[in-house]
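Sequence in, structure out.
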Amino acid sequence: EVLTYRLHYGLMDAGVAVLEVKPSIMEVAGRKVYHIVGNGYSKGTFDWFFKVRDRYETFIDKDAMVPWMFVRRVDEGGYKFSQDYTFNHYTKKVDVGGGEKIDVPQGVQDMLSSFYAARNLDFSNAKEGDVYTIKSFVDKELWPMNIRYVGKETIECELGTFKCLKFRPIVQKGRIFKNEEDLNVWITDDKNHVPLRAQAKILIGSIKLDIIGASNLANATSKVN
């Protein structure tokens, strides 16, 4: 599966993000895993004054759907850092390097695997207002990702018109967002649960992520035309 998105900052076409599930099954810690890679980069005018070249990788257990390794390489406006986390779901610890191991709960996800864990949730009996929680490990801390189900909508995007489920992730206000519910996400109302659009109001302006490509999906889609 390959998903490609275009990022807008206000009216500016600011960047591209590509999420790819590699076709080959790998083995990590004696477990068969999916290797998933996410790349994000700035483009056009935005690239001139704030160059972004980010890469994320996760290795998700084929059966248990939890990560065994997480790799993060950030290069944003000249600011660079790396993260290499090794998850041990038997001991419930994450090795973050430098001899440091941090306790985590059962079933914890990393930044990228959380995206796929959310897509694998069962929303068939979802009622408006229901909140789903995914336990994520981000920047050496446990961060519960809470998403509230808003309802069903039909939206148009570059790939056509789709029946969707709409969610509102509950974000931390004050740093980037004005309010806790300034981020909205639309996913296809089918077994793929492909995110088609994410739109957010931020302290300065707005950002929008729109899908522009989707290939090798596992199931039929909710496209209506």
